[in-house]
Amino acid sequence: MGNYELQLYTFLIFVSLAALVEGYKFQPLILYENVPDHCKVWKCCNHSVCNMRPPTAPVLFTMLHGGGNGYKTLGMINSIALAYAHGFNFGGLIAFKGNEVTHGVHFKKLVSSLFDPALANTIIVDEYYNTTHPPRFTLQFQLMDQIVALKKQVAIKEALVYNAPIYKSMHEDMKANSPEREYMMTKFHAMFEESGRDDSMLQDLIKSPIPVVAMHVRRGDMGRNDVTLSKFIECSKDEFFYDILVLIKKFLADVDVHLFSSLEKSKTETSPWTTKDFDGYRERGMKVHFDEVNVPTTLKFLALASVTVIESRSSFARTAAHLARGCVIDISCGEPRVLSSKATGKLEKDLKKCLHMKKIISK
């Protein structure tokens, strides 16, 4: 055992004992010897967005999330942003065989459509996670904050975080924005605009002479009679979105409003949603879009709008909100709030402040 491993081992024992005293589950896997330089063994992420730190910086890897495409995308975004914010380069996502595909869509294809084909080709390392012979890292942890705490005390060469950084409270995550994270978001926005050059809908948004509001109302995959989803439907009532539009128009009288949803039928639904269910939105001057607009265009539109309105129980909407360039309002089950590091909890005041800060209004 070398000096580095001995130092690390001693420190981890101390931190683990302290965590036990605090009642915190803290279970690092300590690996001492024969840890390879994985980026010499694998094809790690070589895109510029993954390598914002010097080549000598430690390298962070995370597992590809096993959930839907919204969670996968959100995990990737946060992994890259947080790696950069804490002085790491990002080595890439490690996948279990088969979990790169969700609803028939390969994650690389989604990344290519959303961001950049070059990023798609390198974001997942070219080696599956083998449970029989798993890759060995200097440090392996469950959560990102454990790695960050250790990095302040000891030198870390490589680290694996099993759980991609997706937070329980989106509001807390948005409040935790840092200059580094904001800088990373500008990188993603630039990729959005570049990849949307041939998309007429996105070009109309980018060139719009008036502010654009984009709303995401999750409907299609949620059966209106599905008891297990009744709470979600209750929390995203049409009236909540109508009320938010009234508030937005107090500050933005001339505004172009788009609503995105789906008529996809859930497996248990006996009375599926129809286009008529959205007449209330049309009557209020909104342009309603369903499945004719593809997933990448929808997400980019939500992220690039002047104001994005969501219900954060949808991982897809949450992903758009994390990437949003403008102001974000979370319907939050009838208790709407602006998601901002400057938010005070007073909706009208916070929205006005955000619109001014984002230079959407002048006063």
Task: Give a topology summary.
Layout: H1 3-22, E1 29-30, H2 38-41, E2 59-63, H3 69-85, E3 89-94, E4 101-102, E5 105-106, H4 107-114, H5 117-120, E6 139-141, H6 144-151, E7 158-161, H7 170-175, H8 179-195, H9 200-206, E8 212-216, H10 230-235, H11 238-251, E9 256-260, H12 279-283, E10 287-289, H13 295-304, E11 307-310, H14 315-323, E12 327-330, E13 337-338, H15 347-357
Parallel strand pairs: 2-3, 2-7, 6-7, 8-9, 8-11, 9-10, 11-12
Antiparallel strand pairs: 1-6, 4-5, 12-13
Helix pairs in contact: 3-8, 3-14, 9-13, 13-14
Across the major sheet, the strand order is 10-9-8-11-12-13
What is the total tally of β strands? 13
| SSE pattern, N- to C-terminal | HEHEHEEEHHEHEHHHEHHEHEHEHEEH
Helical fraction: 40-55%
Q: Evaluate the radius of gyration.
A: 22 Å
3D shape:
globular
Low-pLDDT segments? 4-32, 167-171
Largest sheet: 6 strands, mixed
**Which band does the percent of strand residues land in?**
5-15%
Mean pLDDT: 79
Distance between the termini: 63 Å
Helix/strand-derived class?
A: alpha/beta
Would you kindly provide a written description of the structure presented here, covering whatever features stand out?
The protein has 363 residues and is of the alpha/beta class. The protein contains 15 helices and 13 strands. The protein has helices at 3-22, 38-41, 69-85, 107-114, 117-120, 144-151, 170-175, 179-195, 200-206, 230-235, 238-251, 279-283, 295-304, 315-323, 347-357, and strands at residues 29-30, 59-63, 89-94, 101-102, 105-106, 139-141, 158-161, 212-216, 256-260, 287-289, 307-310, 327-330, 337-338. The strands form three sheets. The protein has a six-stranded mixed beta sheet. α14 (315-323) links the parallel β11 (307-310) and β12 (327-330). α3 packs across α8 (179-195), α3 packs parallel to α14 and α9 packs parallel to α13 (295-304). It starts with a helix and ends in a 6-residue tail after the last helix.
